[in-house]
């Protein structure tokens, strides 16, 4: 089986004669045991009971800890555990999560993220109030390795409700994380699972859903997305894979739009992504001072999108790299300042 499916994997419907809870909180994990206790605790604190919520950890053959023992210790029998027989990669692990989900509403909560108090109550309210929707989401906040707040997602709209013209908004710019999004299982059954790339695969899925279903939103901040150096997205950045994935995604996502809008929206989208990736390239330079790695990264960005603004930012980055290569910044001394 391909680790990265080239087409959306089929999600079979469940038998009609089985008991189904309202919720399936499916927690894909791979070598993130340092954060799993917080993730599970954030869900268990909102647990309505096994008849209403399936909670299951799906382990992609982690090697950093005994995840089964950790789940048993935290969950005390309440949390189910499934381990892949071998490492299958993130996309296949998400597919397994959805296939194993028995609930009507599926929350893919990664093993390093957290649901804030009230998340499941509010999401349930949205699905009840707007029965036509295929998915719903809340605002979220970025947190660091220690759980400290970093920044909040911008508000999509000021009031709660179904988002107008959501397809065009999400096709232009990714503004979600898995932690804040809930999808009907029946939607995955109609549209399939994640595919194509391992950076931005969720963006394509959110666009795919928006093409066929209304989506509801609350401006309440009810989910937390953790930023840390061991994440999959950070590893992809270091390898220069992100911009290659984004180039593929820009084409795939444009095909979800009416033909007359594809070029315009794709151009807007790639410019936003190029600016975002340039910020990451600059941070990569500050962190590593690896000229060749950053240069390769920047070439990929220019292949993604080129205009005057992007070129000027690239020139500024190269100027900084040249100056610091000739005269590298002084290392900080461990000595205390005078008077301390």
TrEMBL record:
A Pfam family matched in the record: Glycos_transf_2
Cited InterPro entries: Glyco_trans_2-like, Glycosyltransf_2, Nucleotide-diphossugar_trans
GO function terms (MF aspect): transferase activity
Record's keyword terms, sorted: Transferase
SUPFAM superfamilies assigned to the protein according to its UniProt record, in alphabetical order: Nucleotide-diphospho-sugar transferases
Annotated Glycosyltransferase 2-like domain residues: 24-191
Gene3D superfamilies on file: Spore Coat Polysaccharide Biosynthesis Protein SpsA, Chain A (3.90.550.10)
Name of the featured protein: Glycosyl transferase family 2
Species of provenance: Spirosoma linguale (strain ATCC 33905 / DSM 74 / LMG 10896 / Claus 1)
């Amino acid at each position: 089986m391909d680790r990265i499916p080239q087409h959306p994997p089929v999600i079979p419907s469940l038998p009609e004669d089985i008991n189904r809870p309202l919720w399936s909180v499916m927690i894909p994990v791979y070598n993130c045991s340092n954060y799993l206790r917080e993730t599970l605790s954030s869900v268990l604190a909102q647990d309505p009971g096994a008849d209403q919520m399936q909670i299951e950890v799906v382990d992609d053959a982690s090697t950093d800890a005994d995840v089964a023992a950790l789940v048993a210790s935290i969950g005390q029998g309440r949390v189910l555990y499934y381990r892949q027989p071998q490492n299958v990669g993130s996309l296949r692990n998400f597919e397994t999560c959805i296939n194993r989900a028995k609930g009507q509403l599926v929350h893919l909560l990664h093993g390093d993220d957290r649901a804030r108090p009230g998340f499941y109550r509010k999401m349930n309210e949205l699905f009840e109030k707007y029965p036509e929707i295929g998915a719903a989401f809340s605002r979220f906040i970025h947190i660091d390795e220690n759980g400290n707040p970093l920044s909040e997602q911008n508000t999509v709209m000021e009031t709660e409700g179904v988002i107008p013209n959501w397809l065009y908004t999400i096709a232009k710019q990714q503004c979600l994380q898995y932690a804040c999004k809930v999808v009907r299982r029946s939607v995955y059954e109609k549209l399939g699972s994640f595919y194509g790339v391992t950076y931005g695969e969720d963006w394509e899925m959110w666009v795919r859903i928006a093409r066929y279903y209304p989506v509801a939103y609350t401006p309440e901040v009810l989910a937390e997305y953790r930023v840390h150096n061991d994440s999959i997205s950070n590893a992809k950045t270091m390898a220069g894979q992100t911009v290659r994935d984004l180039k593929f995604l820009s084409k795939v996502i444009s095909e979800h739009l009416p033909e007359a809008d594809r070029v315009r929206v794709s151009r807007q989208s790639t410019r936003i992504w190029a600016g975002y990736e340039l910020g990451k390239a600059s941070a990569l330079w500050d962190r590593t001072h690896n000229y060749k790695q950053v240069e390769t990264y920047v070439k990929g960005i220019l292949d993604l999108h080129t205009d005057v603004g992007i070129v000027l930012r690239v020139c500024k980055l190269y100027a900084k790299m040249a100056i610091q290569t000739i005269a590298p910044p002084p290392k900080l001394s461990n000595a205390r300042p005078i008077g301390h």
